[in-house]
Amino acid sequence: RQRQMCIRDSGIIMDGNGRWAKKRALPRSAGHKAGAEVFRTISKECGRLGLESATFYAFSTENWKRPKEEVDAIMRLFKDYLLEAKSDITAAGDMKMKFIGERDGMSKELLELMDEAEEDTSEHCGTTIYLAVNYGGRLEICDAVNKLIAEGKTNITEKDISDNIFTPPECDLIIRPSGEQRLSNFMLWQVSYAEMWFTDKLWPDFKPADLHKAIIDFQNRGRRFGGV
Ligand code: FPP
Fold first, then answer.
1. 85: Cβ below 6 Å to ligand 1?
2. Rounded to two decimals, what is the model's pTM?
3. Which of 21, 81, 97, 225 has the fewest beta carbons closer than 10 A?
4. Position 125 confidence tier, pLDDT thresholds 50, 70, 90
């Protein structure tokens, strides 16, 4: 029985900010602010634990449908984070920062800050933190296919797509807080054999201990990758 106990690549869906705020009679933006703090803590913990990569779902291609003030508040939180990202990440060790998702639709200011954070951390060789912003899993696959077509490929293989998506092609573990048990268009190609881990806790309440629990549970599962 093949048991792959070592977790390399993980994906985290940061869900439940709105409900966290509602429970406290706060505006939804306060939930996102608390969520952004938790992102800082948990991304650094992923680095400390030595994962190869962790991909955080921050904003989907569908999230533009939310009220303008909520979208603006989330974009402001990105900006705040990006302004301090270099020192924050450097202080935490040698994590690498990457952004995945469509550039179209993002402001020029944010795109420049995103590029800067990637450049500033590109020499680091620790955990890669991917932040999925304006991201959709189906779009990611279409982008990969279109790139291959543009290169003149006619018979596209799984390896071709795996080599052309944004993150490492196999995700080991997906974590989704807030009681929802769905993927919401996140890392669709990468999750073929991913283990799924859910908790009812809302993202702003998520602690390093919850990440540890998810990893320990992961290590106790038997992964067979379709074999016996
Ligand atoms: C899902 O919760 C969360 C989002 C759509 C936004 C996530 C954004 C952040 C955590 C802040 C981003 C900033 C940085 C620096 C990463 P929800 O609003 O759908 O919650 P609900 O389901 O309870 O309404």
1. no
2. 0.94
3. 225
4. confident
